[in-house]
Amino acid sequence: MKIVATLKRTPQRDTRMKLTPEGALVVDQVQYEVNPFDELAVEEALVIRDKFGGEVIALAVGPAGVAEQLQTALAMGADRSVRVETDQPLDPLQTAHALAAAVRKESPDLVLMGKLAIDAENGQVPLMLAELLGWPHASFASKVEVAADQKSARVTCEVDGGLEIVEVTLPAIITTDLRLNEPRYASLPGILKAKKKPAAVIPLAEVGELPAPSVSVAAYRTLPPRQKGEVVGSAEELAEKLLTKKLV
Amino acid sequence: MSDVLIVLVPSSGHASRSELAALGFGLQVAKSLGGACDALLLGSQATAAAEGLKGVGLGTVLTGDHPDLAQPTGEAIAAATVAVAQAKPYRLIAGPASTSARDSLPRVAARLGAPMVSDVLAVRGASAETLSFTKPSFSGNLLADVDLKGPTAVATCRPSSFDAPGAGGSAAVTAAQLPAKLAHPGKKFVELNKTPLSRPELTEADVVVSGGRGTKGDFKLVEDLADLLGAAVGASRAVVDAGWMPNDFQVGQTGKVIAPKLYFAVGLSGAIQHLAGMRNSKTIVAINKDPNAPIFEVADYALVADLFEAVPQLIAAIKQARG
Ligand SMILES: Cc1cc2nc3c(=O)[nH]c(=O)nc-3n(C[C@H](O)[C@H](O)[C@H](O)COP(=O)(O)OP(=O)(O)OC[C@H]3O[C@@H](n4cnc5c(N)ncnc54)[C@H](O)[C@@H]3O)c2cc1C
Ligand SMILES: Nc1ncnc2c1ncn2[C@@H]1O[C@H](COP(=O)(O)O)[C@@H](O)[C@H]1O
Predict the structure, then answer these.
(1) Which of B72, B77, B108, B294 has CB 3.0 to 4.6 Å from B104, enough for a Cys bridge?
(2) ipTM
(3) Which of A90, A137, A152, A240 would best serve as a mutation to test chain B binding (most B beta carbons within 10 A)?
């Protein structure tokens, strides 16, 4: 099976982003990592490849710095990487178009993606890509079972109210949820090997026309702070406060 | 083109709190634009749910009870929405930030070549050229003011940030004109394993009691407190990952985002991803044995105690006061 795992770099998971007075992000000090949901996508791709054979391609759209996160995917065990080069931030629809061009070129059997990138928190690119390709999709996967004939996959999806099981014929887009797997760490030999793996770069101009940008962030703001609370000395005191305020 | 379309897939004959909030959001945007807000109800409960939505100020209530929507896939919901949007152009097509909307609306955006925003918290402005919204970003740590350009835009809204519409008007209910085939040939629904619910649903409840890893998997006390208060039960990711509670009990950035009147955080640390899901609750009570737990930064009432002692005491004290 030929499997593509897409990845975006996002600030390390517990980063508290800082802002300029004008509401722009301060990014000089930010440490990036593979978006946590994309780590799950890479892991799942490796598991499927190791079962059925084939190759895993890590794919990202982004600036030169993203090469570092693609290296992480290679060190985890992906076979090669492709980066669509762009320095401008793209909006989700533009990103989906850029990914679509790269995916068409590879024509994989399966594309695994994160359900959400934890920076902009959009959760849009995967289904946009599915629509552009005309492929079926399965979202929020907590289990992916590729059929023995490798022509379809049965996916357990974490939906409101429970777990939904769907079947998609391949090629398809599948997005990951937290309980899908435990991503492996890159081993030292893995890191050394990664340096020798093919890492292709495609200039954005080569992926064809992108739609005009249509989503922009005017400014970021910090959350309004919550009023300082009070410390209660005992469960009885807590009960009394809640009862007095008619909260319970 | 100043009308708004809210797409809902009701799971019962009565619109839920989240669905009503989405209509409230749609009506607010339509009002700024000087247009009407229509609703598109899809699935086997559409016709029943439409009845209850005639008098909430909507323009038209469209129903789509289609064979391909009996067990609606995201692809089929998207196809139905696109068909309606092609018959009448809308300025905004939106839904609540439910899994079914997240699993369908980005396809609609791609098909229409429209910009999309997820999880709208507030409407900043709406004109023919630009729609401006506020949304969360960076694990709920920041708010982003986002502008969408283009004749049609797509959005999901965060239900806990919008009110249900008031009474008004009497909307016509009509069947949407849908193509014979909505399903994607490559997608098949197999089954839905519903989480059995013996308590209120997280997104519908006024009071929520959530437990974390500190419970060590023993949710009895959390459930006892919830039952005493008629509350829903929630959980942190650690609890769901451990298999102690079903996935849809997870509160947080990547679980349910809620803002009940009263939220109890019991034995959970308050990681930013958890706070992103509950920090807008009206009153937050935290019980944790670690005085430095981050949950205390957002708590209105902080009790530093062992939950296995404090929760039974709390239950006893409330019971005693109630007589
Ligand atoms: C991409 C991503 C998405 C995530 N999404 C979510 C999400 O949606 N929701 C979510 O909740 N998390 C989410 N997380 C996980 C989050 O970062 C935390 O790991 C998780 O919330 C921790 O759960 P917890 O508070 O139960 O456990 P812990 O952090 O282990 O906290 C347990 C707490 O219990 C207290 N305790 C222990 N014993 C007792 C006792 N006897 N009495 C009283 N207190 C006690 C401890 O002092 C501690 O504070 C996400 C993480 C990532 C990377
Ligand atoms: N620039 C990008 N390059 C590669 N994959 C991306 C990019 N942006 C988004 N994705 C994929 O789409 C998923 C959801 O992203 P988003 O829609 O931005 O929340 C991510 O987890 C990635 O798998």
Answers:
(1) B77
(2) 0.97
(3) A137
